[in-house]
Amino acid sequence: MFPKKWKYGVFAAGFGGITGQILLLRQLETLFGGNEISLGVFFACWLVWSALGAWSAKFCRNPMIFYGILAGQGAVLLGSVWLFRYWSIIIGRQAGVIMGLADMAAGGAVLIAPFALVTGALFTLGIKASGVEPRIIYLWEAVGAGAGGVFTALMVGMIGYFQFGFLIMGVNLLIALRSPRLQSVCALVSLVGFVWGAPLLEKASLDRFWHGYTLIKHAESVYGDIAVTCEDEQYALFQNGSLSGSYPDPMSAEEAVHFQLLAHPNPQKVLLVGGGITGAVGEILEHPSVSQVDYAEVDAKLVQTIIEIFPPEPAAFLNNERVRVVEVDGRAWIKKAENNYDVVILAVPEPTTAMINRYFTLEFFREVRQALKTRGIFGFSISSSEDYIDSGLADFLSGIRRTLERVFPNVVVLPGGRCQFIACMNDFRLESEELVKRLNARGVENMFVSPYILPFRLSLEKRDYLENSLAMNDSEWINRDFSPQGYVRALARWDRQFHPKEGRIYPLLWKFEWWMAAVTVLIFALLISLLSRGNVFERGVRAGLGLGGLAQMGMQLSLILGFQSIFGYMYYQQAVLIAGFMAGAAGGSFSARRWDGKSSAAQRRGFVRVQAGVVLLPIVVLAALFAVKGMGGISKHLLTGTAVLCGWVGGMQYSIGAGCLRGEASRRGGGLYAVDLAGAALGALAVGTLMIPLLNMAQTILILVLAGVAPLALAATGMIKNGFRASRM
């Protein structure tokens, strides 16, 4: 029926593969509380399993099995989504609980395996089924992946995950089957599944995921997964699988705002970033001097959820004439508010993710300082302990204090179940007598921040114990946008508390240095060179693809995590960046066709030139990140353009490199693809979990530059001395 049916099949394989990757990535982020370390774990597991699938498919003798596996791709995606939703029951954990590194690694390895194996195998089998050069298959798969990424970015949140699965299943079956009658039946079944079956599966699987809770609302926004549960009139809001707040929760509401307001002698204009769900807005309004409260909440759907689902009390405060709800990113709002506020209160959750950590960095504290009036007060709280502060907690608290002290000369840390950080540019005192006096004068009646509790809470013994604990574990690290150590150390704190055995690894992680990563990269290059067949140039090609995959994945993660640090809504943008990367790969592969039919020497020169581009490209990524950080706003599209450029160079590198080798097409193309994916897996694990969080963006980029230098030297040396001889993968 179709003279070149393989084109449709390879396009569909790429479309379904990238759609599934984005959907499963979002599921993993929700499963692990939105912690961005899961990004590195996800991509590493995805690429390892894809590489294994591509490599194992080399040994398949029946090329037509490509269509059989293509037909099952959608069904595998449906099963994978269900398995993700059921995973917390399987491992005996409850949704909303912070999981450690071991949980992430085990979950990623098991949950991603089925779909990634299928996606990797389809590439090699596509080469066998079509009988064309690997670079042609790479081009069609990349075109499909780019289209799938754009489609997913536009439709996610509008249709459910299971509807995506039925859609992919229906399209793939139409392509894979030959019989018009079977095609019609499968199209009807997929349509019924899309319209009727998917919503039932969605509800049933979400009930499994949120077992132990009564789920009353689930939605997706640009900023993440939103879930609302209710138990005995106690409402809880979860964002990306992590508890964001609950209502009623008078203790959290009082702790969030009253210390900061009492530190100021006459607060009038107040900015609250986050915390609206707990009733913090109403607590601020209890201070009679307050004339205006700006409540900054970036997610409009979250505010709408509070109004629709929660009791009327928290929503009523939002409608008060003294309250202005600002539906914009808190950082973006603060940047425009120079010398505007008497008090700025940060009431966001614990900084266990890069998304939240961006509110606890040196750069953010500087922005807050500019937004405050001359004697303005800035404050926030972090969960702590009144009676025992271990080394992990002390390390985290002291690092945050050190970062804050880089900006504000006067910082006071108050003890309690939640440690209060109060900062000002001028001298000020926070003694219990003065705070009690201001409470009484303002007529504020509290249950927890009260005249009866404050003297005990702020006793000299408790303050001395806190100060001594922080002094004994004083940290040298500074939390920055492009060196976000805060969220890794916050994760370490929770991991030590709930998984003591895993906690032993963190002291080793703090010793991680840039040269360790550089040595690892060089060893990886050496291993690929020694294990490869052929002359020096061919070894350089394979090393270039292996380390090129490492660099490409490192740059992709740098763009995603950099976007998160700057703008805070990576949850949506990661689909756009991935789509841009794959669209660029398609363009690069297409542009590489100009080397078709040229001499071996010309192809070798082309590969060396592209490899030189691989060396320079990380510097372009770093420059783009710093440019966007300085400009903000619409400049975010510069990062998408940079992702397209990265994919373009990667597409050219694979296509030209595959043409420079000799041997049976599927073995050559599949083997080179597996090497590329293996390098990318190492890059995902190293960059996503170690290099960016524990080093910084600049050092990470320099190591990625080094990753391109070694194979460039091999390829250039081989081109000059050894020429080109045929070899097999």
User: Helical element count?
Assistant: 28
- The geometry reads as globular
Pairing-aware structural class of the strands and helices? Answer: alpha/beta
Stretches with pLDDT under 50, minimum 5 residues: 723-729
CATH architecture of the largest domain: 3-Layer(aba) Sandwich
Rg over C-alpha atoms, rounded to the nearest angstrom: 27 Å
Total domain count: 3
Helix content: 55-70%
Classify the oligomer: single chain
What name goes with the CATH superfamily of the largest domain? Answer: Vaccinia Virus protein VP39
Question: Would you tell me which CATH topology of the largest domain applies?
Answer: Rossmann fold
Report mean pLDDT, rounded to a whole number. 87
Summarize the structure.
The protein has 729 residues and is an alpha/beta fold.
Question: How would you characterize this protein structure?
Answer:
With 729 residues, the protein is an alpha/beta fold. It has three domains: 209 residues, Growth Hormone, Chain: A, CATH 1.20.1250; 254 residues, Vaccinia Virus protein VP39 (Rossmann fold, 3-Layer(aba) Sandwich), CATH 3.40.50; 218 residues, Growth Hormone, Chain: A (Up-down Bundle), CATH 1.20.1250. 66% of the residues lie in helices and 10% in strands. It contains 28 helices and eleven strands. The strands form two sheets. It has a seven-stranded mixed sheet with strand order 7-6-5-8-9-11-10, with helices on both faces. It has a four-stranded antiparallel sheet with strand order 1-2-3-4, with helices on one face. Helix 4 runs antiparallel to helix 27 and helix 22 packs antiparallel against helix 27. The longest helix has 32 residues. The chain is globular, with a radius of gyration of 27 Å. The C terminus is likely disordered.
